[in-house]
Amino acid sequence: MKNLLKINIAFIFVIAAFTSCNNAKSSNGKSGALASNVAEKVYVAPGEHDEFYAFLSGGYSGNLTVYGLPSGRMFKEIPVFSQFPTSGYGYSEETKPMLNTSHGFIPWGDSHHPDISQTNGEIDGRFIFINENNTPRIAKIDLRTFETTEIIEVPNSAGNHSSSFVTENTEYVVAGTRFSIPIPQRDMPIKDYKGNFQGALSFISVAPETGNMDIKFQILMPGFNYDLSHPGRGKSHGWFFFTTYNTEEASTLLEVNASQNDKDFIAAINWKKIEAYVNNGGGTMMPANYAHNVYDEETHTATSTMKKEVRVVNPSEVPGAVYFLPTPKSPHGCDVDPSGEYIVGNGKLSANLTVHSFTKMLDAIENKKFAGEAYGIPILNFEDVLAGSVEQPGLGPLHTEFDGKGNAYTTFFISSEVVKWKLGTWEVLDRQPTFYSVGHLTIPGGNSSKPQGKYMFAMNKITKDRYLPTGPELEHSAQLYDISGDKMELLLDFPTHGEPHYAAAMRADLIKERSQKIYNLEDNKHPYAAKTDADTKVVRKGNEVHIYMTTIRSHFSPDNIEGVKVGDKVYFHITNLEQDFDVPHGFAMIGQNSSELLVMPGQTKTSVWEPKQVGVWPFYCTDFCSALHQEMQGYVRVSAVDSDTPLKWSLGEDIE
Amino acid sequence: MKKSNIIMLLAAILPLGLFLFPLWRITLEAPQYPIPLAMNIHINDFSDVHPHDIKNINLMNHYVGMQYIPEAIPEFKIFPAGILIVSFLGLLIAWKGNYKWFLGWFILMIVMSIAGMYDFYLWEHDYGHNLDPKAIMKFTNKDGTVMGFQPPLYGSRDILNFRAHSYPQLGALFLGLGIAAGLLAYVVGKKKDKKTLVM
Prior knowledge:
The complex is a heterodimer. Chain A is mainly beta. Chain A has two domains: 52-514, Methylamine Dehydrogenase, Chain H, CATH 2.130.10.10; 521-650, Sandwich (Immunoglobulin-like). Chain A is built from seven helices and 45 strands. Chain B is of the alpha+beta class. Chain B has one domain. In chain B, strand 1 (24-30) and strand 2 form a beta hairpin. The radius of gyration of chain B is 21 Å and the shape is elongated. Classes of the chains: A mainly beta, B alpha+beta. The interface between A and B is small, with 9 and 10 residues. Chain B: Keywords: Membrane, Transmembrane, Transmembrane helix.
């Protein structure tokens, strides 16, 4: 036993020696005259704009961060699934409904895979969708305002991981389940998993104009784990591909028990066929309970509606719609090349990278060359659908992206590198180390028929020594590579926020031109908006006090309020009357058990305060709005419950 | 119709361009306004160059106690009437009159334009100097007098952190061309008249 340990240690040292050797080589190559060249490639002069937007998921931060490429500068954190005290998202009365679910209000989420809307297979930059993994949800962010405007909960799902990828015309945003579960949920022994649990793959339709989401149907698949997915495109448009693991259907120690089969599957789903079936009344409406939360830009308010049923389809009801493609060893990423012909199964425990051919798949289906079936779903022969494999490219392949020039780039988690290889010949062209243990990678426009090339960035799981140390907990690191030449060139190392899983990126121009500067005050339809100083007032309804308040440089109106009592529920409805770009006002009340509000020009937001003590309590503007920001403040007089202090409010004069 | 009368006809019509295009523009530049604030002055209106510019100019100006730019001023009624009248007179003399009338119209236009500019100067002066005594920030000149914030009548000038520009717009060009055409009509008409006399 001891000997075995020694051998292991020796082996690790040998590996370490090799690794450090590689590192030394690459860093030597970059010093000297070439280094300045690299710096120029990522230098964006002060005041200049980056060429690309990159939207990185925040992972366990629950949010989405916006970066510029090639500079690697972070511009914004968009709150999606997590409360965000900076702006009041999830704290303000208007946005609390966004985080409502069938389990009640949830302050946090785990965001994974952003994907930008497409038209005719090209990225159109209108919306970005992102999945919440833990309590299955899909969110839509409007790229005019960079605000989350819709969140739909996904019923019958658990670990919403093979999500949220859009089809070539954004007909659907697709969400697959990682865990299989009893459907419908019921009390049963866990050991009876096999044959009883099911995995739901949800097709959420997206309305062409508004982008409104609605679950069109769910396919109830066998009890495997559905890991990742991608849509077909071009010739394979109308199909969707999902990688699976745990085809062993184990419910415990999956690390071992789900790694036994030589091959798991890629599930190929002809969603057009199922759509037609459903349009003709097919499928079953099943009782469900899930939240659909929509933010209205005119009322600046979200509403949450509980939906009570969902349409489910059993694959056996629609023959010829679902097939299994055997794929070696627990494939993780499921990536489709820009032409739609190649489906890459990144078998994470496999030595080789498997690529299936869509044409060969159709041929095998037509000739009914089946190797068997699982739960009534035909299994095709591995050899019949295999386009080729990349032999021994690295260890632990996870994800593949494409440059649109016939090359593919695959991340290898264990060997910590990105490998460039050629579609069709399957030869390895180049490899570059990542720092360290890369997960996803992104090429702008990667998930479309027209990748925008030029750059690729790798998002890593381990940071260690890449930056100045910040104690045990570190932000993750990303590396940007120039992929315009034959060889990849490492340009930049930049820290990311949260734990980015995947990112979507695109040329800046489309989004930049449409980005909104302010909300028009005229269009504000918030029921509690005060659109001029004359509309400000304080209204009591029982123990609720509604304050219709405005902000403009540099005062609140009203700024002196009396007649509030201990035990009241005070609603500050704050309308920002500004109509100038980048002049928000903030609001914070002493002792308030909530966050501040940050109110954009033309917007109304509401904050609740429940005063517990008599006194005169101040509030102030938290955003350095102007030269007189420090003067932007006010007082609320709180009287005892049984007092008869009349309700009064004023600005610029003493309350009589 | 005589050549001079055709030119006069043109002269009478051109000032109507003031109803289509702005007369003047005041632009305020500052580092934190990468897109400058700007206001167009029409013959009958003030308008934003970019949405909400006037509101934002007012917000800036309230720090030093300047009045809000009014929604309407009496000039917005007087100026359009004046232009309509002189255009009508111009049309009348283009139809009936001779070159001597054209000179008269030209002089009338010059006088009216000067009066208009003077009126604009008076408004600007009042706007820039008639400050709220409770102004948040009070500035004085080196000689101790209260600093004014009057934009230039014509040209560019620094006012605190702003650089103010005041320049004519397309409407003013139409007016200017009209006036010049009036003079041209007179010159052409006079030459023709002399030739006729010699012959």
